[in-house]
Write a structure and sequence with these properties.
Layout lengths: L3 E2 L2 E2 L3 H8 L3 H9 L9 E2 L5 E2 L2 H10 L26
Antiparallel strand pairs: 1-2, 3-4
Length: 88
Amino acid sequence: MPLSTNDEPLIDTRAAARMLGLAEITLRMWRADDNPEQPPYIKVSPKAVRYRPSAVAAWAASREYQPAKDKPRKAHSPGSRKGSRGRG
C-alpha cells in the first residue's frame, strides 16, 4: 500500500516529473540546490522523497503565465535576430 496523507497516495520523483513534463534529474537537482521555486515535497527518509499530487498540480497552476493582451508587441527589424547574418 503506498504511503498517503489525507487519503491521497504520495508519488515518487519519477511520477512527479512525469506530471510536470520534466526529467527526474531536474527535480533531484532542485532539491540538491534547495531551490525555493521547486514544488513542495515530503522527505520520508534520508533517501526517500515523495510528492503530494495535489501540491504538484497546485504548484504548476501557480506558475501559469497569462500574457497581457494590452501590451504592444515588440517590433523586430530585419536582421535583428541573434545569429542572423546581414546579406548584401
